[in-house]
Specification:
heterodimer, A: 232 residues, mainly alpha, 11 helices, B: 399 residues, alpha+beta
């Protein structure tokens, strides 16, 4: 039983700013901007199995979903497949979305749970084919900055050693830059829980990152503070 | 902006730059629609699907509910392989397993999920008390580890407590039967049937189990017990191994690798640990035991294994005192200045800070990195002007 399938539909109020137009009629044809204009009509059409609405839904939100999954799993050649999987889960569960205005929060939850399932699957694949642990972190496109690329790899190497919960809140808050309330909504937890997880994740990241030289330029400040305390 | 936010922003920028070379959104949308068509469910009575889903969802939750005995507790969380689960202080934590079994972590307890299958799981209790309700099936395969102890289960309710600092293992069995195997136990495994309890603290055994329901199996016996919970009458009443004895209030256990290490017989300790499996111990033992195990390896001439154990310790227990000590040990074993720096960064006022600062000077001097050696020498003299390496530091600075 998919974790995401279990948890979807739990969003009861939107935390992201949405553009709602309750007076709009459901359009007959779906263009790229229609879903933004009328979430209720979009959700009704998706529940009916309207393929044009589904395509518009995907076009509109796939960058957000792919980016969210990518922040959590790191760079992966299979990222488009994971994105598609998230949308297929969303379509399967559309009947359980209570408030169409919460569509984006709900979709983010699905993206997060798809990402964590994807990470579990990747771990299994590594065991099966002796997967190179660094391969998936290599950006496909050439990076102009070798130090930056090393830092990117090192960051996800550290995240690989953290628990799924810590990894998720860290990636969403620090890498994606989400507001904490949105992180809590995406992780289907309370704000207080999200704060606790984030505090724990940041401390753990600091502790684990000390062995990563590529991250020293970012974390050297903390090390200097520690040395200064030591001198005093 | 704090440093983590800056790092995260830079990582995000690099990811976004790499993503700009992706195929177009329209192509992906068409692919999604094709996948959507393929995924549409075939005609099948909807009530059947709902029924199966409901049963699948309820079974593990029911196990947790039975364990808790009443409503009003936190919702059970699902588990994943490799996950470390901790019950924060003041609140127990229910956990549901895919096979329908459940567990409750008492406040402060920690477990690590090693394996999950449709018919069972392997869970290590790192510390604290954890109650289990294992769902019985014909092919149930459940294993609960606690330090050197292994509890083999087929369907039962019991609680395991492990205190690594005191090397205290306890088991309270309320239903069914279990087999407890112990690292390096020459007398064989211990079979218990409910109701029973067992306590082993630093090699001293205590049990309030009636002799009629506890037995010691021969070393060659399979640790598996019969599938159904067994009655006491079905159990062997007397020891079947002539080296063993029915559990009595006190019973001396054979020497473990820890005992041998304490007595200074490192070669025998290494041999004993090898029988248990160095790799297995590295993955399951408490951090303090891993430091001892690394010492055993080093003193018995297996420095490579010692380094592996210490490295793994730092991965499993990051941020702890023992992880910092492991860094120091790695540096002392020839790992170089970076390990002493790691120790000093993690424990600037730790018990080994003076020693690590001095050894850092030596390592940097050997490496020929004069600038770094000078910096370290100045830092050393600033903090320890009369320290054991002060003369060496002044020599490095040429004063």
């Amino acid at each position: 039983v998919s974790t995401a399938d279990d948890l979807v539909g739990t969003v009861t109020s939107p935390s992201l700013a949405l553009v709602a137009n309750p007076d709009a009629r459901p359009p007959r044809r779906w263009g790229p901007l229609d879903p933004v204009a009328d979430r209720t009509a979009l959700v009704l059409a998706l529940r009916r199995g309207d393929e044009q609405a589904a395509a518009a839904f995907f076009r509109e939100f796939s960058p957000l979903v792919e980016r969210t999954i990518g922040r959590i799993v790191g760079f992966d050649d299979d990222l488009p497949d994971a994105t598609q999987e998230a949308f297929l889960r969303a379509m399967r569960s559309m009947d359980r979305l209570r408030d169409p205005q919460a569509l984006v929060d709900w979709l983010l939850q699905i993206a997060v749970f798809t990402a964590t399932d994807w990470l579990r699957s990747r771990k299994r694949r590594r065991w099966l084919v002796f997967f190179d642990p660094e391969r998936h972190q290599e950006p496909a496109a050439p990076d102009p900055d070798d130090a930056g690329r090393d830092a990117l790899r090192a960051t996800y190497r550290v995240l690989d050693r953290m628990s799924m919960e810590e990894r998720t809140v860290f990636a969403l808050r620090f890498i994606d830059g989400m507001e904490l309330s949105t992180v809590a909504s995406a992780c289907a937890c309370s704000l207080a829980t999200a704060k606790r997880r984030l505090t724990r994740a940041a401390a753990r990241f600091h502790a684990l990152a000390r062995s990563e030289r590529a991250l020293a330029p970012w974390l050297e400040h903390e090390l200097r503070i520690a040395r200064a305390k030591e001198r005093s | 902006m704090n440093r983590l936010e800056q790092l995260g922003r830079d990582v995000a920028r690099m990811q976004d730059e790499a993503r700009t070379n992706r195929p177009g959104n329209e192509q992906a949308a068409q692919s999604f629609i094709r996948a959507l068509r393929r995924s549409r469910p075939r005609a099948r009575p909807r009530w059947q699907l709902l029924l199966v889903a409901a049963v699948a969802a309820l079974v593990p939750l029911a196990a947790v509910w039975v364990l808790h005995g009443r409503a009003g507790h936190p919702t059970a969380s699902a588990v994943e392989v490799g996950q470390s689960l901790v019950a924060t202080s003041g609140q127990s934590r229910p956990v549901a397993f895919p096979d329908g079994s459940g567990a409750i972590l008492t406040p402060g307890a920690e477990v690590v999920v090693r394996e999950l299958t449709e018919s069972g799981a392997q869970v290590d209790v790192a510390s604290g008390e954890v109650s289990f309700a294992v769902h019985h099936r014909d092919n149930t395969k459940w294993l609960v580890g606690a330090g050197p102890f292994r509890v083999h289960v087929t369907g039962t309710r019991f609680a395991v407590t492990w205190a690594p600092d005191r090397e205290r293992f306890s088991l309270r069995l309320s239903e069914g039967s279990v087999v407890v195997s112990i690292e390096n136990a020459s007398h064989g495994d211990v079979k218990l049937a409910a109701p029973a309890s067992l306590v082993v603290e630093r090699g001293q055994w205590q049990s309030d189990t009636p002799a009629s329901v506890a037995s010691v199996l021969p070393p060659s016996a399979s640790p598996e017990v019969s599938a159904a919970p067994t009655s006491s009458a079905a159990e062997g009443n007397e020891p079947v191994d002539d080296r063993g004895a029915a559990l009595s209030p006190t019973h001396a256990a054979p020497k473990s690798w820890q005992d041998l290490s304490r007595s200074g017989d490192y070669a025998a300790a290494y041999e004993s640990a090898s029988k248990r499996g160095i790799t297995s111990l590295t993955e399951t033992a408490a951090s303090s035991s891993l430091l001892t195990l690394a010492e055993v390896c080093r003193f018995s001439g297996h420095a490579g294994e010692a380094a592996q154990i210490l490295t793994r310790l730092r991965q499993r227990f990051p941020g702890t005192d023992d992880a910092a000590t492991a860094a120091f040990e790695l540096g002392r074993d020839g790992g170089g200045a970076s390990w002493f720096r790691a120790y000093l960064a993690e424990r600037p006022n730790g018990a080994l800070a003076l020693e690590a600062s001095g050894r850092l000077l030596e390592a940097l001097s050997r490496s020929g990195d004069r600038a770094a050696a000078h910096d370290a020498a100045r830092a050393y003299l600033s903090r320890y002007p009369n320290g054991p390496h002060a003369a060496f530091a002044r020599q490095l600075l040429g004063s």
